[in-house]
Write a structure and sequence with these properties.
225 residues, 9 strands, glutamine synthetase activity, Gln_synth_gly_rich_site, alpha+beta, Gln_synth/guanido_kin_cat_dom, seven-stranded antiparallel β-sheet, Gln_synth_cat_dom, 5 helices, Creatine Kinase, Chain A, domain 2, two-stranded antiparallel ribbon, Glutamine synthetase type I
Length: 225
Amino acid sequence: DPATMQSYERDPRGIAKRAEAYLNSSGTADQAFFGPEPEFFIFDSVRFANDMGHTFFQVGSEEAAWNTGAKYDGGNSGYRPGVKGGYFPVPPTDTLHDLRAEMIKTLEQVGIETEVHHHEVATAGQCEIGTKFSSLVQKADELLTMKYIIKNVAYRNGKTATFMPKPIVGDNGSGMHVHQSLTKGGVNLFSGDGYGGLSQMALWYIGGIFKHARAINAFSNSGTN
């Protein structure tokens, strides 16, 4: 706020900072870690129109399952993941391996530590890049930077990256699961001898997410796209 020089109450980054401060003051834990893993599609082309005469959208992907019979100047190799058949293939079926490697190299250059990248379940270029977990504010900042880099590296290579949840019909959409943990004095508070090797606090934490799922969905999954 320019008048008070305090964080604007509706600024997501300010809210995240206050949440971290509240966690520390509560005595429950002194650190919360988050590790989001965003999924995204990489398309070869995207066309759309919405005018007085017609409405349409069309995405192009040479590796898409619907292009098994397409004719290309360089020939059709036949290597492409089927519908819901794209989880962890290797090249040449995974045509985007080297492009993701370029994205990771760029992420590392700006200080974002990466851990994994792979093709995801859907055909037509669905991918995932996983980065190392960090504190809430730092990870949120890194996530926005990560999306910016992924989109621009794709564009530099003549492609379009999108984080839309459902850009195509009939196959898996893109999600972003988030690894979460609490620590105190360097001790993982979620580790225990309960169900699944979890502590009672971890089970309560999961229960809290379920209890407030409707409210969380209001800002995390408010619509299809």
